[in-house]
Amino acid sequence: MKHPDPPPFSDCPIPISETEEILLGHGSGGKLTARLIESVILPALASPALEALDDQAVVSIDGTRLAFTTDSYVVTPLFFPGGDIGDLAVNGTVNDLAVGGAKPLFLSLSFILEEGLAITVLDRVLASIRRAAARAGVSIVTGDTKVVDRGKGDQMFINTAGIGSLRPGVSLSSRRVRAGDAILLSGPVGDHGMAILSTREGLDLEGQIQSDTAPLHELTAAILDACPDVHAMRDPTRGGVAATVVEIATRQRLGIEIDEGAIPVRDPVRGACEIFGLDPLLVANEGKLVAFVPQNASAGVLRAMRATPLGAEAVRIGTVTEKHPGFVVVRTLIGGERILDLPFGESLPRIC
Amino acid sequence: MKYLDEYRDGGVASSIAKTIAETVTRPWVLMEVCGGQTHSIVRYGIDRMIPPEVELVHGPGCPVCVTSLEMIDKAHAIASRPGVIFTSFGDMLRVPGSRGDLLTLKSRGADVRVVYSPLDAVRIASQNPAREVVFFGIGFETTAPANAMAVYRARKEGVGNFSMLLSHVLVPPAMAAILQAPGNRVQGFLGPGHVCAIMGYREYESLAERYRVPIVITGFEPIDLLEGILMTVRQLETGRAVVENQYARAVTRDGNPAARALVLEVFEVGDRKWRGVGSIPKSGYKIRYEYRMHDAEKRFHVEEIATEESSLCISGQILRGLKKPSDCSAFGTLCTPQKPLGATMVSAEGACAAYYQYGRFLDSASLPAVTAQAPTA
């Protein structure tokens, strides 16, 4: 089946996949996800706000600029070291607003519950949601609950949407990223993804890996205080830091250079990544931030990040360049080079 | 991280690369046998650190790549049956057979699961006595002990609903096939470190002697690989052709006798079809007659499935080091990681998949400047 509309960014040499069914990989944050959005969803629903493909939309109501976003949370197990589906559902949406330069204000909360779920489980998740909302300074103002037959949902799915008020004068978008920008990362990568994976696969790491789920609104405020002209901020969730930088390089036709030696990774996370054969750059985070900052402001922004609890380990990991447009080149630990690309679908554990 | 960081040190790496450049006086073609080595070479950019005289060709050592099309079709046929739980290492799921891949089958409702060890599959079988549980046992000698252990344990513990679809391949017959092939270009090998941790390297000594080819058993970290390249180049430059062991921290001459004994208790050597290469005599393992109730091919009567491969795909010549992925007319056009014709394009360890990224990078300077078009509503 051919789609009548040409896909955007059609310079890509990759032919449209002939997959006609949804695969798990379509939700992985890899190329399949990008293709689903660009060749199926966008052509059907095109609007200027959607086409920016940022983590949040910026809308104006009577001259007041608002950031608006939504996200759904499906995670197994519901409770994992360092967090649970409840604080994830609050922090994830708060962070999508915060990295757009907004102060998160209001959240909606929808549950899809599977028949048979213990009320005590729901109680625990609600308590966690309440704590997370208080920490992030947001109010949950509307909600919905649906129940599906046993076997038709994995215990609990949550959707949240959020609204925040944008700072005057601030304009953050991946479209503003320029050659010469410094790329800053707020702390060690891979904690969330490996906390989930090692719990799910029964890898006994004695609780050494905790999810990093946290609200980023204070960190983003500190960054914008230090430099209101920051070009873009992203929270590198699904697909990790790699998905963030590859997406910006590809869509904005810019080159990006990353210094692999500068990427902080905690030892237990590195160890777990070695065991599973995964690249920490591709592993999900839930409380980290990547900022694209004008070169001359980068030192000041880095200082401001390090002065906050969530940015204490912030580092510069790379630079945007005019060279090799569309490609992310990693300077490897041993001084070699490689192209950083997104996996096609899910990152599958390798046999050797 | 101890025992890893030492082998990823940038200073040591550049000093070995410099020594290689000082040692080499003429062009040499080296083949790294293992897919894991190919992966590290690309991941760390080692191919771009060494002098251009040293050409690395990627060997047949990706078990995913060499698993024959008909084996994948057999897997597909078994996994399609109602009541079957089909288990496999992750990267095997995306390899296309002539009837599609296992991930797509999963999306259509088949019970296909990723496991990290064949023993996990045995555990799933004992927890689901009413279901048939099949493990896709692929790999080189490295994974053979774990696969043999799963079959051994299933029989010992009476897990009658567990069986294995076995497609094991052996390295030395493949190396011999490469060296015997007309037009062979390979002059030295980085030998398979993990395979030799199990098997030792006595078998390789006769290969080195018979074909006058240096073989350096090599590890998988960047320093290992650079050291292995240096040792091979030194042998070539001085006209020697022996087996040397770079990976001494893991490999001894005799390997792991207990593991080998277990493998030979459960498996026996037999002919095996390799994807893109064809049948190589005595190049694989089969499940012994005594363990036939755990042999999925017999249990599900799929032995007669036979499939021919795409005539466009030259992965056989690539696996033997005769051609480069960029020599293929389908490369990057009809055949991409998203729509692979042959398995060398599928796995991250496959030579074509590795080249696909590298080649795109080289061409990027000549790509036309394109402005993003907004989709027409």
Textual characterization of the structure:
The complex is a heterodimer of chains A (352) and B (377). With 352 residues, chain A is α+β, with helices and mostly antiparallel strands. Chain A folds into two domains: 24-166, 2-Layer Sandwich (60s Ribosomal Protein L30, Chain: A), CATH 3.30.1330.10; 172-340, PurM-like C-terminal domain (Phosphoribosyl-aminoimidazole Synthetase, Chain A, domain 2). Chain A is built from nine helices and 14 strands. Chain A has helices spanning 31-45, 48-51, 85-98, 119-136, 191-200, 217-226, 240-252, 267-276, 298-306; strands spanning 57-61, 64-73, 79-80, 83-84, 102-114, 139-148, 156-166, 182-185, 232-234, 255-259, 290-293, 315-321, 328-331, 337-340. In chain A, the strands form three sheets. In chain A, strands 9-11-8-12-10-13-14 form a seven-stranded mixed beta sheet, with helices on both faces. In chain A, a hairpin with a 2-residue loop joins strand 1 (57-61) and strand 2 (64-73). The longest helix of chain A has 18 residues, at 119-136. Chain A is globular, with a radius of gyration of 20 Å. By secondary structure, chain B is an alpha/beta fold. Chain B has a single domain (1-359), classed as 3-Layer(aba) Sandwich (Rossmann fold), CATH 3.40.50. Chain B has 15 helices and eleven strands. Chain B has helices spanning 10-23, 35-44, 63-66, 69-79, 102-107, 118-127, 144-156, 171-180, 193-199, 202-211, 222-238, 257-266, 296-299, 315-319, 351-364; strands spanning 28-34, 54-61, 84-88, 111-114, 132-139, 162-169, 188-192, 215-218, 243-245, 267-274, 278-287. In chain B, the strands form two sheets. In chain B, strands 4-3-5-6-11-10 form a six-stranded mixed beta sheet, sandwiched between helices. In chain B, helix 7 (144-156) links the parallel strand 5 (132-139) and strand 6. The longest helix of chain B is centred in the middle third of the chain and has 17 residues, at 222-238. Residues 360-377 of chain B have low confidence and may be disordered. The chains are: A alpha+beta (352), B alpha/beta (377).
